[in-house]
Design a protein that fits this description.
Order of helices and strands: EEEEEHEHE
Helix content: 10-25%
Oligomer: single chain
Radius of gyration: 14 Å
Strand content: 25-35%
Largest sheet: 5 strands, antiparallel
Structural class: mainly beta
Number of strands: 7
Distance between the termini: 18 Å
Length: 121
């Protein structure tokens, strides 16, 4: 997956919602251990991720809607669930975490949000 956002030195949060559930892909142990955008584009899975080490790729096998929400944040967020952990390779995106995220975003001046959806047929 190629994420081409022109926000060097920003933290990238990438959320996915599909038939399988709602997950944080970046940062995550599964796909992107480093959430800082050094130089666009960002390619997932990253080289040091579990998915890269095991040869997993993004494959959409089930029909239905896939949604991605990307948030580029100038100042990195301080949320414990944003630290990649092996025991939660793809952190679940739930109401409590969404609330915590937006509470911290409200305290920042410079962040951008992007949305993309598509149908898997």
């Amino acid at each position: 997956m190629r994420i081409d956002l022109e926000y060097s030195n920003y933290q990238l949060l990438l959320f996915n919602r599909s038939q399988q559930g709602k997950y944080l892909l970046c940062p995550s142990f599964g796909y992107a251990r480093n959430s800082m955008i050094d130089k666009p584009p960002i390619l997932l899975p990253q080289k040091d991720s579990f998915a890269d080490q095991t040869g997993q790729k993004f494959i959409f096998e089930e029909m239905g809607k896939e949604e991605f929400l990307a948030i580029a944040v100038e100042k990195p967020l301080n949320l414990p669930w944003l630290i990649p952990k092996q025991e939660e390779a793809l952190p679940e995106w739930n109401a409590e975490r969404i609330k915590e995220l937006f509470e911290q975003l409200e305290q920042q001046d410079n962040w951008q949000i992007f949305y993309q959806s598509f149908e898997v047929v």
